[in-house]
Structure formats: structure tokens, C-alpha cells
Amino acid sequence: MSVDFSDWSAVQTPVVTILVLAAIGVVAGVVCRLALRRLYPLGYGQIGEPRMSVLAGFTVFMASLAICMSFDFPLEGHSSYFDGALAESYGFESVDCGNGSCRTAIPDGTEYCIAERKDGKSMTIRVHGDAKAKRVEVYGMDGKPIRPVRTTAPTR
């Protein structure tokens, strides 16, 4: 049996996360501008106040983005990488296909991966991906297909 990855691969860009972080940056810029007006009631300067507000907003945006990236923040609580989505679809604890688990595209062809089961045991699996059809099939080393726990990959 194969798993349909068409919904997973359609959500490749973290647009929602970027928009939320940009909104946080805008709020930080507005707060900075209000704080500067309160600290300097006679005026901080025609050019200095907007520059500081933009700088504060951009700094908060970049810091928020860096924090999210360092924690590998996935969208909507699901794995944004192929190995994680494959593990979730087939009921494994984790899957490592030797690419650093950072691939965001469906493989085209056959490759061998190490899957860790929920009981802690590892097994080698054969993953056959069809990037055009956006489907993935997983087989054990004995050639028998492994049944997925879900028919569609988790959306990110």
C-alpha cells in the first residue's frame, strides 16, 4: 500500500510562520515608536524615530525567525521534513534516509532507510517514491510491503 503525499508536498513554504513573525516585528516597531515618544516628548528627531522603530521591528523579526529555526519549528505541529512525515505515516518512531533528515521533497526512485520502531528496535526499509504521482511505498528487506497507519501524509 502506498501513502499519498500530495497534500504534504503542496505546503512547502512556511508562509504562515513568516507572516506571524512579520506581524510580531511590526508590533515591536510600533511599541518602540510609542516608547520613544514617551521618553522624548519634545521629539527624538524627524529621522531618528522612524529609523529606530524600523530597526527594532526588523531586529525582533529576525530574532524570532532565528529562534523558530533553531527549534526546527514545524507548521501546524506536523513534521516538515520527508523523513518525519514518512515515520508518522508508517507508525515508526523515526526514519533516517541518510540525508540529515532535512529533505523537503519526495524522493524519485528507490532508496534504503533506517527506521526505528516504537519498541526501540531498528530495521532497514526500502522506500520507493514517485515524485510525479506524489506517492510513497515502503517495503521490508524481505520484499513484503509495510502497511501504513494512515493513507495520506500529514499536512504541515
What does this protein look like?
Strands 1-5-4-3-2 form a 5-stranded antiparallel beta sheet. A hairpin with a 5-residue loop joins β3 and β4. It has 4 helices and 5 strands; from the N terminus they run βααααββββ. The chain has helices at 6-10, 15-39, 48-70, 82-90, and strands spanning 2-4, 94-96, 109-116, 122-130, 135-140. With 156 residues, it is α+β, with helices and mostly antiparallel strands. α2 packs antiparallel against α3. It is elongated. The chain is 40% helix and 19% strand. The mean pLDDT is 78.
Short descriptors:
4 helices; elongated; alpha+beta; five-stranded antiparallel beta sheet; 40% helix
Low-confidence stretches: none
Q: Percent range for helical residues?
A: 25-40%
Number of helices: 4
**N-to-C series of helices and strands:** EHHHHEEEE
The tally of strands reads: 5
Q: Largest sheet at a glance? A: 5 strands, antiparallel
- Over the alpha carbons, how many angstroms does the gyration radius reach? 23 Å
Principal-axes geometry comes out as elongated
- How confident is the prediction overall: mean pLDDT? 78
- Please state the structural category: alpha+beta
Task: For the largest sheet, list the strands in their spatial order.
Answer: 1-5-4-3-2
Distance separating the two termini: 22 Å
What percent strand? 15-25%
